[in-house]
Amino acid sequence: MSTHSPSPYVDLSRAEWSALRDRTPLPLSAAEVERLRGLGDVIDLDEVRDVYLPLSRLLNLYVGATHGLRHAVNTFLGGPGETAGPQAGTPFVIGLAGSVAVGKSTVARLLQALLARWPEHPRVELVTTDGFLLPNAELEARGLMSRKGFPESYDRRALTRFVADVKSGKGEVTAPVYSHLTYDIVPGERLKVQRPDILIVEGLNVLQPALPGRDGRTRVALADFFDFSVYVDARIEDVARWYMERFRKLRETAFQNPLSYFRRYAGVPEAEAMAYGERNWRTINEPNLRQNIAPTRGRATLIIRKGPDHKVQRLSLRKL
Predict the structure, then answer these.
(1) Main-chain phi, psi angles of 4, to 5 degrees
(2) What is the pLDDT of residue 3?
(3) Which of 31, 184, 42 is nearest to 106 (CA)?
(4) pLDDT at 114 over 70
(5) Angle made by CA atoms 31, 200, 168, in degrees to the nearest 5
(6) Residue 64 burial by CB count (10 A; 0-12/13-18/19+): exposed, middle or buried?
(7) What local confidence, expressed as pLDDT, does residue 85 receive?
(8) Closest by CA position to 108, among listed 30, 22, 43, 168
(9) What is 76-124 written as a DSSP string?
(10) Is the pTM of this model over 0.90?
């Protein structure tokens, strides 16, 4: 465990973190991990056992502590306990942030699968903020297609309202659905979320602070509704390389689909297609990472740091 200069985080090596799983059994098979793994990610059972199993144990402890605190507040307010009264039980919300191509979607799916195996909270829902991107037609009308993924390309009010409704205990809340194949919102399709035990919200900019409104007043931020947050981190040069590797694999697979928005890049020479991918990284994804995503890293409860091989090397847990 690091003993360097004062920090709001406890810094741990992968080996130190792995030891904290405390005999927690691994509930996933190699086949399940393979199914949950994203394109280009190299996660395996060892990584799940060393990194994500201890994290699921920590989150289980956080959920239990939250229930205990809720019980205490209800007692203070004169209610009967944790599941009724002024502070009736509401979902535990986890925010998960990081760059495109860093592997955060795989982390989100793994956490959903692992957390749902704990008997205390079997209903775990996962929502990505992609569903709250403005439709392509709206982005075109606003001149924002070249800034897709930047904070201004989302319906931030609808996203915040969605998480606020879930957190308040509303019986059913719906979210738009995004298709990575068509690169757009799916018209008329909605994802239903019905009072989960845990909600995971995964996206590029979920840890951003609130922006002042037109009247100058600071608004509520999405992260204000999180009980725990994770930032998946890596050096920018490594993320750039992973992005291009993933783009090459997508060109050989998903882009071949006639319905794919990027179908045209499956038919052109590889050099031309890769030049487009490199330009996309340099003009959209890298600036978004540097300007908007990376600056939110210090707002996370836990930072997961990956090395050049996509393997987790260190973790930093915020002190209480």
Answers:
(1) -75, -160
(2) 52
(3) 42
(4) yes
(5) 145
(6) middle
(7) 52
(8) 43
(9) HTT-SSSSSSTT----EEEEEEE-TTSSHHHHHHHHHHHHTTSTT---E
(10) yes
Element spanning 67, H or E: helix 53-76
In sequence order, which residues have a C-beta less than 8 Å from that of residue 210 and are 6 or more positions away?
218, 219, 220, 221, 224
| Residue (of 230, 184, 186) closest to 206 by Cα position | 230
- Name 68's Cβ contacts closer than 8 Å, sequence gap at least 6: 82
Length of the chain: 320
Higher pLDDT, 311 or 26: 311
Per-residue pLDDT tens digits for 263-297: 999 999 999 999 999 999 999 999 999 999 999 99
Most distant CA pair in the chain: distance in Å? Answer: 70
Task: Let me know: does 59 contact 53? Beta carbons within 8 Å.
Answer: no
The structure tokens 């319905």 sit at: 259
Residue in this structure with the two tokens 């502070």, named with its chain if needed: 87
CATH superfamily of 9-51+93-318: P-loop containing nucleotide triphosphate hydrolases (3.40.50.300)
Residue with tokens 């289980």: 60
- Closest CA relative to residue 207, chosen from 300, 131, 290, 288: 300
Confidence of residue 34 (pLDDT cuts 50, 70, 90): confident
Going by their DSSP bridges, the two strands 173-179 and 312-318 should be labelled as unpaired
194-228 pLDDT, tens digit per residue, is 999 999 999 999 999 987 777 778 788 999 999 99
